[in-house]
Write a structure and sequence with these properties.
Elements (H helix, E strand, L loop, with lengths): L1 H34 L40 E3 L4 E3 L4 H4 L11 H4 L15 H5 L52 E5 L7 H9 L5 E7 L4 E6 L2 H10 L12 E4 L6 H22 L2 H8 L3 H10 L11 H4 L16 H19 L16 H9 L28
Helix pairs in contact: 11-12
């Protein structure tokens, strides 16, 4: 019975504790509401999430690579070039075998060991779609860009160029010509052949011009960058477009069309003009190109230098240095000129055996102390005319105002 009687007391005590806790919570809430003091809110911190670079993906399984000798197409095997010679050379270029792989830039590209080494070349097997190393490759696994500049004697894969093209316009190419045009043959002729060629070839870089011969199944694709043309030649060799054809990709010969020659000459002139534009002052470029209409009037006034009808030539008006006539051309060279004068003054004092004086700048003066020291050292003493010795005698104070006497 005692246990039965104590249980209600314990339950009542627990209920009372819960009610007290609820009352204290309500009082705290009322106090917070009345005093209008809210709980401190958490400060929002904006986090910048930087995605890590994706590693390059192996394009094929390394176990599938087999070192097999090339098929016999000649009578003599050249161990230096690892191919047969002495056979019919047309068999190789008319072969209808597809390439073993194809590069998918969107999925296969990524960082490799070569990204940590500036000046690395691109992976030839990545362009052909058969590189098994992935991120462990010592070459770049991405498309060439405008900032990838290589020696003109090698291509983007690091292979040495030759002085002339091969007879079939294949191979690495020649260093005597900057070739950005790729020849593509054996294209399946359809009504939308131009759209098909542009869509597949634009995968390897920015295209400048596409010319398609519809009836012959031939296309000429010109890239903006030469490295992209080199990459596309290797990537599209023995590949297919929308049909099961096997493409014949070679370097294009020089276009004999006069319009194409003028276009190439105009492009070279534009590149040279851009280089000169970066080297010249901005105001000079704006005046020459006519972008600043007030520059000509301002130039006519400034280059006269107070002489009516005179206008200084360009080499005088835009000259830079301490001896420039235009005050703008002397900006930044005054200090060097003062230092040179100080050195010359110090050398002159050392030759004369005089102690070198250190001048301090005067407060409130127009010229600085270094300038005053240079001017003081450059002073030239003018010898005065020696006076005649005073004569002694009885006629000391005698003189005449007449010059004839």
């Amino acid at each position: 019975m005692a246990e039965v009687e104590t249980r209600p007391d314990t339950a009542v005590a627990a209920i009372d504790d819960m009610q007290d806790a609820q009352d204290s919570a309500q009082e705290l809430a009322l106090t917070t509401t009345n005093n209008e003091v809210a709980a401190p809110t958490e400060k929002k911190v904006k986090k910048i999430i930087r995605r890590k670079k994706r590693p390059a993906r192996p394009q094929i399984d390394p176990a599938l690579i087999k070192s097999e000798p090339p098929p016999q197409t000649g009578t003599v095997f050249n161990i230096w070039y690892n191919k047969w010679s002495g056979g019919d050379r047309e068999d190789k270029y008319l072969s209808q075998t597809h390439a073993k792989g194809r590069c998918n830039v969107a999925q296969d590209s990524g960082y490799t060991r070569a990204d940590a080494r500036p000046g690395s070349y691109f992976c030839l097997f990545f362009a052909r779609g058969i590189c098994p190393k992935g991120q462990d490759c010592d070459y770049l696994h991405r498309l060439p860009g405008i900032h990838d500049i290589f020696n003109p004697n090698v291509d983007c894969f690091g292979r040495d160029k030759f002085s002339d093209y091969r007879d079939d316009m294949g191979g690495v190419g020649s260093f005597t010509r900057q070739n950005r045009t790729v020849y593509i043959g054996r294209i399946h002729v359809t009504d939308d052949i131009e759209e098909i060629v542009a869509r597949h070839l634009a995968e390897w870089g920015q295209i400048e011009r596409v010319r398609v011969l519809n009836t012959r199944g031939v296309a000429f694709v010109t890239y903006t960058n030469e490295a992209n043309a080199q990459f596309a030649k290797e990537a599209m060799a023995h590949q297919s477009l929308d049909h099961e054809e096997v493409l014949n990709v070679r370097w294009a010969t020089a276009d004999p069309n006069p319009m194409a020659q003028k276009r190439e000459a105009r492009r070279i002139e534009e590149q040279a003009a851009e280089a000169i534009r970066k080297a010249l002052p901005a105001e000079f470029v704006a005046e020459i190109e006519g972008k600043d209409p007030e520059a000509r009037k301002r130039r006519k006034l400034e280059s006269s230098y107070g002489l009516e009808g005179y206008e200084a030539p360009d080499e005088v008006h835009f000259a830079r240095g301490p001896n420039a006539v235009n005050p703008r051309g002397r900006e930044g060279y005054e200090l060097e000129h003062e230092q040179r004068l100080m050195l010359e003054a110090a050398e002159a004092q050392m030759e004369q055996g005089q102690p070198q004086e250190q001048s301090e700048p005067q407060a409130g003066g127009i010229l600085s102390g270094s300038t005053l020291a240079a001017l003081h050292a450059a002073q030239v003493s003018v010898a005065s005319k020696p006076k005649a010795a005073a004569s002694s005698g009885p006629l000391v104070a005698y003189d005449s105002d007449d010059d004839s006497d």
